[in-house]
Write a structure and sequence with these properties.
Elements: H1 4-23, H2 30-38, H3 41-48, H4 58-65, H5 78-96, E1 101-104, E2 110-113, E3 119-120, H6 122-132, H7 137-146
Antiparallel strand pairs: 1-2, 2-3
Helix pairs in contact: 4-7, 5-6, 5-7
């Protein structure tokens, strides 16, 4: 599948990804990693069609949860949208839950690490949400905020 914005994103962020995937560190640019994960262009485009604006708040997660799941009709788009949903969920957590931060596993998978040390596999949660609607993104956020 050819998705032009992904090609541009990959080229812009190749060096940063190489540094972070190597050791799970964000190098000298922790905001660069957070900004990269916050892009979520496909999700932003799809929710905008319904008048939802993603403003990196828990309220926007609630709005996403309420959308009709039309993306399930497109098996090619479904995993991409789920990935974006997970990255957006992680973005909201990192930006609003004290002590939360992005972390790349040795395999290069992005997870959110809470101040308690608990790791949230937000991309998996986003994929589950996109495929079945459960768990709701706002529910995952609420659990993270309580930790």
């Amino acid at each position: 599948m050819n998705i032009p914005f992904l090609d541009a994103w990959r080229k812009r962020n190749a060096d940063e990804r190489a540094r972070t995937a190597a050791g799970g560190e964000t190098g000298n640019d922790p905001e660069g990693l957070a900004d990269m994960f916050a892009e979520c262009e496909l999700l932003r485009a799809r929710v905008q069609e319904f008048g939802v604006r993603l403003d990196d708040t828990p309220r926007s997660l609630e709005a996403i949860d309420q959308l009709p799941p039309r993306w399930r009709d497109d098996p090619e788009e479904l995993p991409w949208l789920g990935n974006d949903a997970g990255l957006y969920l992680g973005t909201v957590i990192v930006r609003t839950v004290p002590g939360a931060s992005w972390y790349l596993t040795r395999g290069g998978h992005p997870v959110v690490r809470l101040a308690s040390g608990r790791e949230l596999h937000v991309v998996e949660a986003g994929l589950d949400w996109a495929m079945s609607g459960s768990p709701e993104l706002s529910q995952v956020y609420a659990e993270a905020a309580e930790s």
